[in-house]
Amino acid sequence: MKKLITGLFILFFACAWSAAEAQTAAVAKSQELAKPYHPEANAQADIDSLLQIAKKDGKTLIIQAGGNWCIWCLRFNNYIHSDAKISALLESDFLYYHLNYSKENKNEAVFKRYAPQGGSLGYPFFIVLNGQGEVLAVRDSGSLEAGESYDQSKVLAFFNSYKR
Fold this sequence. Notes:
Layout: H1 2-32, H2 43-57, E1 60-66, H3 71-82, H4 84-93, E2 94-100, H5 108-114, E3 125-129, E4 135-140, E5 145-146, E6 149-150, H6 152-160
Parallel strand pairs: 1-2
Antiparallel strand pairs: 1-3, 3-4, 5-6
Helix pairs in contact: 4-6
């Protein structure tokens, strides 16, 4: 019995140690990724400026909602900038904005205006606007995932479906 208790005790601490190491690795990984969200920004003013450019240049505005606290938000940002095809598509046909949601700034008025159901989708999620500021879509990102990253064909199909 004593050996069983000792064995369980060792197993418990090994699992706890492993979980702590995994959490530390995830934090370290998130610290390596760019932090594109700016809680201090005036999101509505930024979006209004981008919509003027979108209208003039015939582009679509993609808003990625999330925060620097969200590993999947940071991964998606890193993914779209490191994949040459996706990066080129975004550069040529879209404007892109990171709408912050955090304890520092929840941007409640902006979310209410463009995506009142947004938070229920999880983060990140996307708001697609035409040059007139009309919401074309509000979309989750989960369906674009592949393992701990994203699927190129699904991401390209998503963006291409809103090319003007």
